[in-house]
C-alpha cells in the first residue's frame, strides 16, 4: 500500500516525539477508558492537531491525543479520541491513523467503547468482550478502495486467541468479563425502545455508536483485533433511567479505574 503524504508527515512527527519507540499494539480509548494512560511509562502525548490525517477538533468535537509509551515491557500507541460516523456522516475517519500506526509497527488493535446493554443480567458497570458485531447501518469505511483485499473476511474478526487471553486475565483478576455481540447503531440519537427490542431479537448483546468501522479497517490492514465494551446503561426502555450523553460519561467515569486496570493487565501480557 502506498503511503499518503499525511501518513508520512504524521509518522515523522511521531518518530521525532518518541524516538526509538516502536509501538506494537494500538489502542482506541472510548468513553471511560482514558485511565489507561495512567498506566503508561515514558509517556509522550501528541495532540491530534499536530498529526495530519488524525481526527481534528471541530470534527471530533473535542481535542484528541495520541499517547506513546510502554505498558509493562509492551510498546503501545493509545488513541484518546476517535472519529464517529455520526459526526460528519463519513465512516472512514480512523483510516489514516490506523494506517500510520500499522506503518510504525503495530500488529494488533485493541478497541474500547461505552455501550448500552441489551441483557438484563449484564447491568451498568459490566465489561463485555466482543465476540462479533452487527453492522446495522451497513456502511463500510472501505467503499472506494480497490483491489481484491477490500473483500475482507469478517469471520473471527475479533481474534479468538486474543479473546481467550482476555478471559484468562479477567479470571486471574477475579473480574467478571461478559462475552457478546455488539450492534453498531449510527446515532447520534439513542435507540427507541422498539429498536432495542428488535436488536435483542437479532441476537445483539450490546449497542453502541463506534468500533465497527475501525474493526473493518483493521482487518483490511491485517491487524488482529480485540474489543471491550464498558456498559454504561441498559438499552432504552429496559429500565426507568433517563439516557443522555452526560449519563453515559458519568457512568463511564465511575468504572474507569477498574476497566483500565483489567485492560492494562491484558495488554501487558499479550504475546
Ligand atoms: N446506545 C447507543 N450507544 C450507547 C449507549 C446506548 O444505550 N450507551 C452508551 N453508548
Tell me how many strands there are.
9
User: How would the global form be characterised?
Assistant: globular
CATH superfamily: Nucleoside phosphorylase domain
Largest sheet: 5 strands, mixed, barrel
Unreliable residue runs: none
Briefly, what CATH class? Alpha Beta
Concise description?
With 271 residues, the chain is an alpha/beta fold. Helix content is 31%, strand content 25%.
Structural overview:
By secondary structure, the protein is α/β, with parallel strands linked by helices. It has a single domain, classed as Rossmann fold. It is 31% helix and 25% strand. Helix 1 packs across helix 3, helix 3 crosses helix 6 (212-221) and helix 4 (160-173) packs across helix 7 (245-268). The chain is globular and about 50 Å long. The two termini are 26 Å apart. The structure holds hypoxanthine. The site of hypoxanthine has 14 residues, from strand 5, strand 8 and strand 9.
Strand and helix map with partners:
Elements: H1 5-17, E1 25-29, E2 41-47, E3 65-71, E4 74-80, H2 85-88, H3 95-104, E5 108-117, E6 127-135, H4 160-173, E7 177-184, H5 193-201, E8 206-208, H6 212-221, E9 224-234, H7 245-268
Helix pairs in contact: 1-3, 3-6, 4-7
The structure holds hypoxanthine (HPA).
Hypoxanthine is lined by residues 114-116, 185, 190-191, 207-209, 232-233, 235, 243, 248.
Amino acid at each position: 500500500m502506498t503511503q499518503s503524504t499525511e501518513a508520512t508527515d504524521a509518522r515523522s512527527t511521531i518518530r521525532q516525539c518518541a524516538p526509538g519507540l516502536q509501538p506494537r499494539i494500538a489502542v482506541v480509548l472510548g468513553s471511560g477508558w482514558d485511565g489507561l494512560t495512567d498506566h503508561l511509562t515514558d509517556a509522550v502525548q501528541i495532540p491530534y492537531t499536530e498529526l495530519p490525517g488524525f481526527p481534528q477538533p471541530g470534527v471530533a468535537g473535542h481535542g484528541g491525543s495520541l499517547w506513546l509509551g510502554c505498558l509493562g515491557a509492551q510498546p503501545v500507541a493509545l488513541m484518546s479520541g476517535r472519529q464517529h460516523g455520526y459526526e460528519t456522516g463519513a465512516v472512514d475517519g480512523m483510516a489514516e491513523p490506523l494506517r500510520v500506526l500499522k506503518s510504525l509497527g503495530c500488529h494488533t488493535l485493541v478497541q474500547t467503547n461505552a455501550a448500552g446493554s441489551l441483557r438484563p443480567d449484564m447491568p451498568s458497570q459490566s465489561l463485555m468482550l466482543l465476540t462479533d458485531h452487527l453492522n446495522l447501518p451497513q456502511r463500510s469505511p472501505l467503499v472506494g478502495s480497490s483491489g481484491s483485499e477490500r473483500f475482507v473476511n469478517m469471520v473471527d474478526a475479533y481474534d479468538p486467541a486474543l479473546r481467550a487471553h482476555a478471559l484468562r486475565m479477567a479470571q486471574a483478576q477475579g473480574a467478571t468479563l461478559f462475552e457478546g455481540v455488539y450492534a453498531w447503531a449510527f446515532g447520534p440519537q439513542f435507540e427507541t425502545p422498539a429498536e432495542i427490542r428488535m436488536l435483542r431479537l437479532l441476537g445483539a448483546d450490546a449497542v453502541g455508536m463506534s468500533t465497527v468501522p475501525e474493526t473493518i479497517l483493521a482487518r483490511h490492514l491485517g491487524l488482529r483485533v480485540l474489543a471491550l465494551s464498558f456498559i454504561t446503561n441498559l438499552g432504552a426502555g429496559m429500565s426507568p433511567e433517563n439516557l443522555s450523553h452526560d449519563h453515559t460519561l458519568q457512568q463511564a467515569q465511575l468504572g474507569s479505574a477498574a476497566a483500565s486496570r483489567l485492560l492494562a493487565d491484558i495488554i501487558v501480557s499479550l504475546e
